[in-house]
Amino acid sequence: MFKIKNKIFAWSLYDFASQPFSTIIVTFIYSAFFTTYIVEDVDKGTLLWTRVISISAIIAAILSPILGALADRNSSRKLMLIITTYISIIFIGLLYFPEKGDIMFSLIFFAIANVAFELSTVFYNSFLPDLSNNQNSGKISGNAWGFGFVGGLISLFICLSMFDVNQSSEIPKVSLLVAIWFFIFSVPAFIFLKEKKKLVTKKLSTLNQLKSTFKSIKEYKSIFKFFIARLFYNDALITIFSLGGIYAVGTVGFELSEVFILGIFLNISAAIGSFIFGYVEDKIGSKRAILITLYLLIFSTLIAFFAPYTSSPKITFWISAILLGLMVGPNQSSSRSLLSKIIPANKKNEFYGFFALTGKATSFVGPLLFGIISANFSQQIALWIVILLFCIGTIIFKNICFDKG
């Protein structure tokens, strides 16, 4: 029991280690710094940022199931987790160096860091079925997500206390903090998580194994439909993660220092939501939990759209952000937990690879369309892309029956 708790804690600590990358680099601080300082043109910067997210998402989508199949074949998911983590850490640290006008260097460093980060998530998620069962997977997954947002929160506090975020010259230092944070707190996972050796009667080539996995996924109709639904609603989440800070600055009128504060409270609400829904999910079921989060995510995005029309745009946007934060963690946590309950035991990495694929295969669509529409019209109009993606994903997911294969 003690060993299992150690493994669960070490696994959860990886979320704590990795979340500052999403919070500080992708969503709030570095993205806004890139558009306003490195590019010096919010519209052009938004378009470039969305394009690099799209490209890195496509690369991650292609590599995820391939590397997942390879990890299953060679029992090497822990090694893959370590390699992809350290690649991401190195290139996060390199984001410290680009200065005003160094657009290409900044984009390349971020793209590599993001691809490696997404790939590491595949192997990290695949350990969940080893640590949980149908009765506690929601709690374990939810606690890990909550722990992750606590990590994002603490790292934001450290940034706020160590750096003057109103000084552009100070912002690159946050990338060093994120890299060091990721490096230190990922170590326990590498120590305590163990690779389970399995007997393989017949080894297929990675490509053939990938084809076999795709065929088997289609045979599991509920899993296949779940992947399709997640393809849409996760694209909406990625768009929000990637452009939330940019929207706050460009449309609602936030200063970078205000984005910092927003990020702190968003992480507080996300942590609370993840911890609470982890227990709620085990009571009401993963499907109902996910549907609740999707309905409220649509509602919160609508509030964000109407915020500029209100008498207090910033306050209205704050309400939207807090509600969104409460639901973001539970949505992702419950999705991960649901898959752990229905996944074939001998195809963990492959199916989690396809889980990542459906999370990334079209994830370039939301940010890309947002960038194009915002460049030609406005960021506010572009927000309807997020609402549409949420709605499509919700409709598909609502009609899935998980009692059947």
Automatic annotation (TrEMBL):
Where, subcellularly, is it found? Endomembrane system
Molecular function as annotated in GO: transmembrane transporter activity
Recorded topology in the membrane: Multi-pass membrane protein
Q: Which InterPro entries match?
A: Atg22-like, ATG22/LtaA_families, MFS_dom, MFS_trans_sf
In which domain of life is the source organism classified? Bacteria
Instruction: Kindly list the GO CC terms recorded for this protein.
Output: endomembrane system
**Which intervals hold domain Major facilitator superfamily (MFS) profile?**
174-405
Task: Give the primary localization class.
Answer: membrane
What keywords is this UniProt entry annotated with? Membrane, Transmembrane, Transmembrane helix, Transport
Which is an annotated Pfam family here? ATG22
- Looking at the UniProt entry, the stretches that span the membrane are 21-39, 51-72, 79-97, 103-124, 144-163, 175-193, 231-254, 260-280, 289-309, 315-331, 351-375, 381-401
Which SUPFAM superfamilies did the record assign?
Answer: MFS general substrate transporter
Q: Which PANTHER family match?
A: AUTOPHAGY-RELATED PROTEIN 22 (PTHR23519)
Q: What is this protein called?
A: Major facilitator superfamily transporter
> Which organism is the protein's source?
uncultured Flavobacteriia bacterium
